[in-house]
Each structure stands twice: as C-alpha cells, then as structure tokens.
Recover the amino acids of this structure.
C-alpha cells in the first residue's frame, strides 16, 4: 500500500512539474524563472496515460506571461520513448500576452495552440494572430520553430495571410 501511495504521489508531482516546464516555450529570460500558476474551474488527472487536463476558465500565469483558454491538456509520453511532453490549449480563442525583454508586449490568439516540447515547435491554428504593438500577422495557421526562430503563416481556402507592419515601430526597434 505504501508503494502504491508513493508511486501515485510521484506521478502527481511529475505531471505537475511537466505542466510547469512545458510553458517555457512562451517565456523569455526572466519569465522562465518565475513560478507558474494554473487556475481553472476543473482539473482531471489520468495517471495511466500521463495526461492532466484543465477545463473551464483556464488562466496560466508565469512572470509577464498570461494565457487564457477553455481547455488545456498536458501529455507526457511513455518513459524511455525518447519523446517529450506536449501542451494543447483550446478556446474561442486561446489568448496569450507577454512582455518581451525590451518592454514591448506580444499578444497572440488562436482557436487551438499546440506546443511540442521535444521539437520546440509551436502551432497556432484557427483564426491565428500574432501582434506586437500595431504590427500583426493573421492567418489560418501560424507555426514557430523556437530553435531556428522561424515563423511561417498559412492562409486557407477562405482567407489569405495578412500582415500589417508599422514602419516607425520597426525603425525604433532597430535603434535599440
């Protein structure tokens, strides 16, 4: 019985830690050192499949990062599989906000956000938007390769990618 309780406790600690480390994709230098707080109306834990689900009014904060979603699912792959955790957030839309190291805000939204921690790859789908000050990019799907720092935006059969750049904001960014 003690072994079962210890194993259960270890899995809960592991899944909670998993949730905290997975958000580092959105974070910059100082934010990654801040505590992660997850508040939701409901939470469920499937220990057999290593899945923790937060539902209804999910709010995640870490430093300057603020993420709001209807549902967040954090999945840990089987041990020794060589894979890392994934985070999926759903909403109408999922929103996130963060202040960058230069003090400028970045805001984003999409109906679904998927982050693969192993590949360090972020995908926003369904009315996706990234915005910094008045400059923004909209598309059906926006992907961001964290390692390569490469962003791609795709339209759909119903809409094209739209980018708005504000020249004086770009110039003030170059001076810094």
């Amino acid at each position: 019985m003690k072994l079962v309780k210890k194993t259960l406790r270890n899995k809960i600690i592991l899944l909670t830690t998993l949730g905290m480390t997975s958000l580092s994709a959105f974070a910059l230098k100082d934010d990654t050192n801040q505590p992660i707080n997850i508040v939701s109306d409901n939470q469920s834990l499937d220990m057999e499949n290593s899945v923790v689900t937060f539902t209804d009014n999910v709010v995640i904060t870490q430093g300057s990062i603020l993420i709001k979603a209807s549902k967040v699912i954090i999945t840990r792959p089987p041990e020794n599989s060589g894979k890392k955790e994934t985070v999926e957030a759903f909403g109408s839309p999922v929103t996130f906000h963060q202040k960058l190291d230069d003090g400028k805000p970045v805001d984003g939204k999409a109906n679904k956000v998927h982050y693969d921690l192993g590949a360090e790859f972020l995908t926003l789908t369904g009315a996706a938007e990234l915005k910094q000050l008045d400059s923004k990019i909209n598309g059906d799907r926006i992907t961001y390769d964290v390692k390569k720092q490469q962003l791609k935006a795709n339209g759909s059969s119903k809409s094209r990618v739209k980018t708005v750049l504000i020249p004086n904001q770009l110039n003030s960014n170059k001076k810094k």
Remarks:
- Confidence is low (pLDDT under 50) at residues 2-27.
- The radius of gyration is 18 Å.
- DSSP finds two helices and ten strands in the chain.
- Strands lie at 36-39, 42-46, 51-62, 65-75, 86-99, 105-116, 121-132, 135-145, 150-154, 162-164.
